[in-house]
Amino acid sequence: MAIHPPGQRHRYSKLLSGKKTKRDVTAVLSLTAMVDMFTVLVVFLLQNYNTTGEVLYIPKEVTLPKAQQIKELKPSVVVTISNKEILIDKTPVITYDALKAQQEWMIQPLHAQVQEALKKAKEKQEAKLQTRLREVVDAAQTVPPEELNAWSKVTVQADKGMDFLTVKKVMYTVTEAGAGEINFAVTKQKTEQ
User: What percent of the residues of the chain are helix, what percent strand, and what percent coil, each to the nearest 5?
Assistant: First the structure.
């Protein structure tokens, strides 16, 4: 080990230990503390990003109507009616012009896709209920009746300028496909006090 004369030494770099001027300052960041801080920040943002469980996708051409009395929507099959097309869970089903030209009430492509989506939702709900039933049997409780048919809920997003006949055709088709409860997506209107 070398013997050095006493004096101030810089422990991070040999370059800085030579000349001592006012401009020779090096800032050393502790990356461990910064990584810890960002990890906590990311976990916090992920926890608080979505408080309702699911974000509802609304196409930019759809302007939802306003309502004063609302309730929180539960996850369900979503049918969107815009002035361009009819969508089911972001998948285009039929164009708006083809729907307007159609004389009959039943929209066949929508009917088939709603039935398929409700079938998948029922299977997913039954799988959840089976797990819950096992837990409930262990705890000697029963499943609430509103959760038994939760798979049959459909949420309709219709543009506020949409004509009534088109909305009625979609509602008729969705009901015939097996939907039990139809909810409309709206935005909350601020009450004036």
Answer: 40, 15, 45
